[in-house]
Design goal:
single chain, about 180 residues, mainly alpha, three-stranded antiparallel β-sheet
Length: about 180
């Protein structure tokens, strides 16, 4: 699979394995950033705000996807998280759902709108962050670091493939004018 631009449209041809992998990854991201608890305070619930403190995620992957805004100030980070956590999760869920909606039912051609492209870029970035965190990827990491029978080999291969997709999609995007 590679994204290409053809007569102003961005498209890609997916085989069965690519389709399955993308569906699975989008589904796993949806589960990971599941919607936070709704406030019992009607006014706070109306504006999507939690009733109190929103703790930083304990899970390394989720902490990478929902990072602290202020690393050196726990109080400011907590306050910022309180006002942004729900929106950030909603945005990540929306991207994953949009990608799932654009995937064809069967292997074949897929055409993306400009809004679809934004959702795809968001999802690809989030999934790469999640996989990279799970693998402990650094700038020095390489596929040759893994034996082919190591389960991490396949995960790192998918991580690399997602980077390739991201790059091919970005190369098709025309900048939006202000």
């Amino acid at each position: 699979m590679r994204f290409t631009r053809h007569r102003g449209a961005i498209r890609a041809d997916l085989d069965d394995v690519e389709l399955q992998v993308l569906r699975q990854l989008a589904g796993e991201l949806l589960a990971l950033v599941d919607e936070p608890e709704v406030s019992e305070d009607p006014l706070a619930a109306l504006v999507g705000m939690p009733p109190g403190e929103v703790p930083a995620p304990e899970d390394d992957i989720l902490r990478r996807l929902l990072p602290d805004a202020y690393r050196d100030d726990a109080d400011a980070a907590g306050e910022f998280r309180r006002f942004t956590d729900a929106d950030l999760r909603t945005s990540k869920r929306a991207n994953a759902l949009a990608v799932l909606q654009t995937l064809p039912d069967v292997p074949g051609r897929m055409t993306l709108s400009r809004d679809d492209v934004d959702a795809w870029l968001g999802l690809l970035n989030d999934v790469r962050l999640a996989l990279g965190t799970a693998l402990g990827v650094t700038e020095e990491s390489d596929l040759d670091d893994y034996e082919q029978d190591d389960p991490a080999y396949q995960t790192f291969s998918i991580y690399g493939w997602l980077g390739y997709l991201q790059e091919s999609l970005l190369s098709c995007v025309e900048p939006r004018l202000p």
